[in-house]
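Materials and Methods. Structural model of tRNA threonylcarbamoyladenosine biosynthesis protein TsaB. The 227-residue sequence of tRNA threonylcarbamoyladenosine biosynthesis protein TsaB from Neptuniibacter pectenicola was retrieved and submitted for structure prediction as follows.
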Amino acid sequence: MSNILALDTSTDACSVALSCNGEIKEDFRIIPRQHTQQLLPMIEAILADAGIAISALDAIAFGRGPGSFAGIRIATGVAQGLAYGADLPVLPISTLETLAVSAAEAEGADNIVAALDARMDEIYVASYRIENGLPVMELSEQVAAPSTFAVDAEGYLAVGSGWRYFEAMPESVKRAVQLSTETYYPSSKSMLVLALDAWAQGKGISPELALPVYLRDQVAWKKKDQQ
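The predicted structure was written out as tokens:
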């Protein structure tokens, strides 16, 4: 059994999960603007509870984005620092794929459009079909204005904070999706599903090669800069 630590701080949620000897533990909290203070103590606590040292891990997975600019940097930096110190590989995992896994596990959906609020009246979005519990990308990750976003087929479950812009989306999108009544965040427990699969495929990389994915080129834009 692989021992993998997963962490995500890409949204208001801060989560840490551990797969250790076939058992999975998670600490999931909605703590806006507290990720920097809480992430390391959460990691230390979950490892201590499992009785495992970082050096005994096989890899560290983290939410590489898209999502909050500051949040992605926190997860990337902590994962890199811990991996450097323990001489471990890392597994960068898509937050949108993680969101799709969370929804698929909870609702049994086969087709999912995952969207996160990108601020500045835009969304980070991708669509997936679920095969054997894993997401297969159909619409690639992108940043888009809700009014111009489009999907090619119907029957999608729509999940994530980006759907707060539903009323601004084209009628074709409104017909194509069913809005989930649940609130989903990228969770590290769901990330472990992807991380364990990636690890089995030999996709672990050196910490220095782990890069965040912002999608938006100018991540520090302010709304006034677009006018």
